[in-house]
Amino acid sequence: MALLSLLHILVPVYWLGGDLGAFYSAGFLVDPKRSVQERMLALTILNNIDMAPRTMLILALPTGLLLAREKGWLLMPWIVVFAVWLGALAWLGIAWALHLRHGASMQGLRRADLAIRWAVVAALMVAGGLGIAHRVQMPLFIALKFLILGGAILLGLLLRRLLGPLFPPVVEMRKSGVSTPESDRVIAGVIARTRPAVVMIWVLVLAASLLGLARPG
Asked: What pTM does this model have?
C-alpha cells in the first residue's frame, strides 16, 4: 500500500517538474540572441523533458483507481482495474512511439492517440459528474479529481492546437540555419499564447494533489 501511495504521489511530482523544465527550456527557444544550433538544442531538450508530464498524465488514472480501490474509496471489480491498466499501458506505448518516431507512417498512431484522449476526457467527465450528482457512489474528492484530470487532458489538447503554428518556422530555421525577424515573431507569439494554458494545468495538478491530501467528503 505504501509503495502504491508513493507511486501515485510521484505522478504530480514528475508532472510539474517536467512541465517546469519544459517551460524553462522554451525561454531559450524564443531567444533571438541565441544561435540556431542552441535554439534547436533547447527544442530537443524541451521535447524530451515534456515526456515526463505526458507519461504522468497517462499514469494518473490507473494509479489513482488502483489506490482508490485498495483504500476502499471506490468499489469496483478487479477486471475493471486490470482493463484500465492495460489500456493505459497501451496508450503509453503509443505516446512513446510518437515521441521516438516521426513521419507520415505515424499518422495512424497520432489519430489513435487523439481518439483515446477524447474518449478518456468523456469518461472522466461522465464519471465525475455522476459522482457529484450521487448517481454513482464515490467520495466527493474522487469525483472532483476525475473532473480535474479530464480538464487537464482538455487543456493538453488545446495546447496541441496552439502549438500548431510553431512547427513551420522551426523547420525552416533548422533547414536554413538562420532565423528571421518574422520566424522569431511567430515562435515567440506561439509560446506566449500557450503560457496561460500551461499555468492552468499546473493549477489543476496542484488542486488534485490538495484534494488527495485533504480528502473532503
From this structure: 0.92
- Locate the domains of the chain by residue range: 2-214
| Residue 204 CB neighbours (<10 A) | 20
Amino acid at site 181: P
Residues 15, 94: Cα–Cα separation, whole Å: 18
Mean pLDDT of 195-204: 96
From the list 3, 64, 70, 13, the residue with the least C-alpha distance to 212 is 64
User: What own/partner pairs with CB < 8 Å and gap ≥ 24 does 177-186 have?
Assistant: 177/36, 178/36, 179/32, 179/36, 179/39, 184/30, 184/32
C-alpha cell at 112: 489513435
Angle CA 31–34–35, to nearest 5: 135
Provide CB contacts within 8 A for 54, sequence distance 6+: 95, 99
CA 144: distance to chain centroid?
A: 18
Query: Which of 209, 128, 200 shows the shortest CA–CA distance to 159?
Result: 200
State the Cα–Cα distance between residues 187 and 58, nearest whole angstrom: 28
Alpha-carbon distance 106 to 156, whole Å? 20
In angstroms, the CA 146 to CA 125 distance is 7
Three-class SS state of 124? helix
C-alpha 95/C-alpha 167 separation (Å) is 19
pLDDT 10s digits, 3-19:
888 888 899 999 999 99
